[in-house]
Amino acid sequence: KINNVIGVPSASDLLLVEVQKQLEEAIKELKFKYVHFHNLFSDEMNICDEDEQGNIEFNFEYIDYIFDYILSIKAKPVVEISFMPRALALNDVKKAFNNSYLISPPKSMKEWKRLVTSFISHIILRYGKEEVESWLFTIWNEPETGSNLFGFEKEETFFEFYVETHKAMRKVLPSLKIGSTTFTMVATESYPYMQHYFDYCFEHDVKFDFIATHYFNDIFCFESDKYVNSIVSYFQEEEDFLKCSYDNTIEFLKRNHLENIPIVNLIWSFTASHRNLISDTCFPSCYIVKNYID
After folding, report:
1. What is the rounded CA–CA span in Å between residue 293 and residue 118?
2. Which of 15, 107, 148, 158 is deepest in the core (most CB within 10 A)?
3. Does position 202 have pLDDT exceeding 90, yes or no?
4. Would you say residue 223 has pLDDT above 60?
5. Dihedral through CA 286, CA 289, CA 290, CA 292, nearest 10?
6. Which residues are bridge partners to 233 per DSSP?
7. d(C-alpha 9, C-alpha 28), whole Å
8. Exposed, middle or buried by CB within 10 Å (0-12, 13-18, 19+), for 91?
9. H-state helical runs in 205-258
10. Alpha helices per DSSP H over the chain
11. All residues at 6 or more sequence positions from 14 whose CB lies less than 8 Å from its CB, including other chains
């Protein structure tokens, strides 16, 4: 498994000087190797320029700033292909957490793949094939959370989206290190969804270089109807919950003959909530140390 990953919420955060200073200090002191972030293709990153006729050109200037910075502090990016630029989105109003995370399939898979392949070609030209081969790539984030958060309305819509994106990336550079989509391994919805996802990928001859995971000490309850669109989480008090969740992941991968593929744990914490009041106590430091030891 690979644990030396530090996370920043969104790609655009890495354009902020204060965030850069904190990240540089963390990498220097704690020896993190990889930097992970969401929303590389957001409108905040000015990815798509659309003219009056609806023609779209791609702009990777801000992405270049971010990757230049990460490499300058002797780290490597974990490149998460997410989320959907408004110009390409089938649904241009559905957002996660009321921020710039636009969660939608593309209205044109052809245009989406043009964006992805243009991006891969661009970074190879700018940073070189050997450098890009040392990076990690994932596609989307936590699709098992359903259409009220990061997922699409239908499972198969996401499965097709993942496979088409994966194959488009491989076509540009077959040696890219591409992992699975990222799953929250403690949500009860994750494992059935994951099984359907892996079955679909196996059927379509998709191979993974690593399995991407998130772990939290929450029990999630996804609620979605006409009047409710929320996620409720309950703190799991069992002190070995995180270790047990990881062990369950190993068993699941063994059943799917994936036990020899590395696990890259991109995010883990005692809670997924940014508003959990426990965050302002000494508990998180104890939790982190205990689970590192485990």
Report:
1. 43
2. 158
3. yes
4. no
5. 150
6. 220
7. 20
8. middle
9. 241-255
10. 17-30, 61-72, 109-127, 129-133, 155-172, 190-203, 241-255, 283-293
11. 8, 20, 23, 35, 37, 65, 66, 69, 70
